[in-house]
Amino acid sequence: MVRSMDSRFTRLWTASTISNLGDGVVFAAFPLIVASLTRDPIAVSVLAFSLRLPWLLFALPSGVIVDRNDRRRLMISADLVRATALGILAIALATGEPSLFVLYAVGFGVGMAETIFDSAAEAFLPAIVDGETLNKANGRLVSARWVANSFIGPPLGALLFVAAVSLPVAVDAVTFLVAAVLIATIGGTFSAEGAPTAGTMREDISEGVRWLWNHRLLRTTALMAGGYNLVVSGMVAILVLFAQDEVGLSDVGFGIVLAALGVGGLLGGLIADRIEKRVGTANALILTVMTAATAATTMGFTSSALVMGASIFFFGIATTLWNVVAISLRQALTPDELRGRAAAAGKMIAYGAEPIGALIGGLVAAWIGLRAPILVAGAGLALMALFVLPLINERTIEAARTAAASSD
């Protein structure tokens, strides 16, 4: 194992940053494309549903695939699939006005590839980064992702959308292609030690799910991530309509306000390691949820673009801090031969909640109003933080780390 972050990590970081820049471009452009075709909140929320549905349907099999195969090759293949799907959509947008169904189908295909890539990437990182620098490596990856995905990408995506509807999608396709080439330059093989070979897919899935579910601490953090994403995705699904109809932002203004998410995300990633060391892992996790609850509630009551931007800024800090602390904890506590399946099971709970939340958010917005999903998110996050206080504390986390170290 590499004892520090070497050139292989640099190439992984660069590939991740480039592909996330493309994701940030379509993060703003995709909802703008759908909103240009329909003002129906439910139709808009279905796009978020199609992107996240694969995590509900395919996350567990993807974990088995990751633990049985070379993780680097899987990441390359997933990026090539995403580049192809988005390239096809870019051509369709340039040559005509595709139906909403085409957008949903491409979103689903990109989401399918993402289940493979994200699970493989989480299992891949500990193979090139020492456990002592895992938090720092995750912090750098997450910070770069937020800067590219949420700070630079959204304003660029909005500007490209104004110039030509197909441009942001084409840019995202190219970024995935470049990322695949960069990952291909990382030498070595990266199959799991003790990888499953004899069991059936069902047996291997059961082993991974059972391991995660029987681990009380990781089960709790996975359920927290699912609850977090359930309510937040309902808010995010209608955010473009809220920004335009309640706050009065233009297309470009929406992209600029989303950039505050990236600024907050950058800051959260940079300070995550220090905050965790200062307040402890358990307190850091609770702090992130309470910060997000406050930010969502504040945004739900405002009609000011400045206040909306500030709320999104603090939301970015909270979400990045959660990702760094929770993912590093799971990587540190999970045996290598189970990392793909444990990551996939955790992500299925976390990301699988998103399509459900997106549809609920669209329905609530249609029935009650565009502010309702945002206020529901704030209340839901606050209740979740209070509920898990007895379950997550420094004593249980230290006991889990000691148990993991003794089993190595």
Low-confidence residue ranges: none
Mean pLDDT reading: 85
Number of strands: 0
**Main beta sheet, described?**
none
| Ends distance | 14 Å
The level 1 CATH classification is: Mainly Alpha
Query: What Rg, in angstroms, do the CA atoms define?
Result: 20 Å
Question: In words, what does this structure look like?
Answer:
- With 408 residues, the chain is mostly helical.
- It has one domain: Growth Hormone, Chain: A, CATH 1.20.1250.20.
- It is built from 16 helices and no strands.
Task: For this entry, give a set of tags.
single chain, about 400 residues, mainly alpha, Growth Hormone, Chain: A, 16 helices, about 85% helix, globular
Helices and strands, with pairings:
Blueprint: H1 7-37, H2 41-57, H3 59-68, H4 71-95, H5 100-128, H6 134-163, H7 167-184, H8 201-214, H9 216-237, H10 239-246, H11 251-279, H12 281-300, H13 305-333, H14 339-367, H15 372-388, H16 394-407
Helix pairs in contact: 1-5, 1-6, 1-7, 2-5, 2-14, 3-5, 3-8, 3-14, 4-5, 4-7, 5-14, 6-11, 6-13, 8-14, 9-14, 9-15, 11-12, 11-13, 12-13, 12-15
